[in-house]
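Per reviewer request, we include the raw input and output of the structure prediction for the construct analysed in the revised manuscript.
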Amino acid sequence: MRWQLSSVICRLCFFSVILPYFGLQGESCRYPLAVMSALSGADLDMGQLVEIKSMGDGIGGGRGVFAKRDIRAGEVVFADIPLLATEESEPDSKELLHVQLARRVLQSEQRETLLQQLACLYPQSLSELTPEILEKARAKHGGTLAYLASIQAAPAMPADDVLLVLLKVCFSAFCGGIYVRKAMLNHACRPNCIAFQPGQRTSSDGRVLSAAASEVVATRSIAAGEEVTICYFVPAERSRPGRARLFEEQHLCALGPSGWPREMDSLVGDV
């Protein structure tokens, strides 16, 4: 889980220099991803530039975010304020960030309100998961589930409800916290956008452009009707085996076929 929840590193030079070298300026490769909302596009306001649409395939409800109009390279697609921001851990803390976020939801005095706001995230219920994914989830998170169930606020939620919260966080959280709208974005190894953490994007004179919100910015021109994607790998430059391994670790399912040429692997090694 650490790879998705670690600090985001901006790799704009990679998308503007390395990918064009291999002729990879075309449409980004989309993968089925278990972080999409089970809501219809009308249920969540994504702003003026993009909207959620049903795609009819993929894990997590088969939905994605699509451009309403042509979007220019460098344009802010949307900004999102975290529902729950990550807190800095104590130096000796061994608590992973996804566990911290799930714990804080379960211990919050506003737990019911937070759960209502998290309801749109995949999975809405454990029945949405394939038997294979559910089996993997129980095996992988058994110890964490017992810990979270033991420290949650009263009244105690059933173990399966605690697991549901944990999986929503694991599948959808980012290093800065839980972002509901940003969680609607599908992953692509060749994305057309990059997600900046609050305070990370600056102007040419060093001014912070958005201190409170995470901004999703287009790295190239995006045509109306095209899917808007970000890369969940940190860093983005990873080999095929490395991408597949990390995706399986995070989402408990296989990564789809990649559009990257195998020559990329010789540049980054098995990472």
